[in-house]
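Lecture notes, unit on protein representations.

Consider one protein chain, 375 amino acids long.
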Amino acid sequence: MRIAVNAIFMQNNPLEGFGNFANQIVEHLIQLYPEHQFLLVYDRPFDSKHLSAPNVQSIMTGPPARHPLAFLTWYNWSLPRAIKAFKPDILLQPYGFSSAGTKVPQLLTLHDIAFVKYPEFVPKKQRLFYKFFNKKFVQRAARLNTVSDFSRKEIAEHYRISEDKIDIIPNGIKPIFQPLSWEEKEQVKQQYTEGTEFFLCTGTLQPRKNLLTLLKAFSIFKKRQRSSMKLVIAGRKGWGMEEFEEKLASFKFRKDVILTGYLADEALAKLTGAAYAMVYPSFYEGCGVPVLEAMQAGVPVITSSNSAMSSICKTAAVYASPVVPDEWAMHMNFLYSNESYRSQLIEKGKELILPYTWEHTAKAYMDSIMKTLGA
């Protein structure tokens, strides 16, 4: 089988979100299925050693897809032209966009419809682009896949398509997220929090992550417990964080809140493994990878009661309303004062996370490919 892949984000550099998802899936497909030929199509210079194998061919075609007009030009003209000579059986579109310029069956990955459910959390230009084009992208696709049953139901309902046309491809979790020894935890705490325990929240800093509720909850917790516990927020700064920065500057417990900025995977895995608990108050997620990373690292999780997290994490996490800081503070307090309950959550999380490997994810994706082709 000849498989063409839209590889615009498959670069040998730090990736987040859907970029990492696509990169990991394609890397494992290449390894697991050497009998198939892969054509990776880039829109900018790429590292020829990255994702290289005997069954891989990589090419570049412009223009770089860095603004809406260039994006549409690349998808509808450059990409179809680039794959024509390869004569692919299928075209993988892992970033939520499809092409109007090819008759090759396209398998589209759509993680969620956050721009529909919470449009205020998406930059205006991006929101307008999605609103105008996403329905067309979905209609062009021969088949879709997404990261959770929660997202599948929302996508099917919004675009009025059958759930049978959408496969669930769960996220894999990187194996570097593992429980740490006592000595390792102490080293990490010395590095970030002067040796004290900490709650952790990770991910790109943007309004959808609901960090204002987290600050309020942490304030309530600190007033009730009067402990040395700190709050560590790890992730690169995104858009729309002016209000959070303003509130944080005058926050009563500012000295107990640490912003790390972006961390490489190795550092993030260590930080996660050393946390007392993961607190993840996001308003909306199609999956919620940080909570799964925490579970694999042996860390208990408090997360939002809406979105996909409750359907994925089941009884292995505790839940709070994203708009009620008191609920978050209550759970933070209970975990802090009840080590037995905390240990129970850790063990449930370790059990729940077992299927979330990239090999399992890649095999599920290959099943989706075969369904697309009617095999």
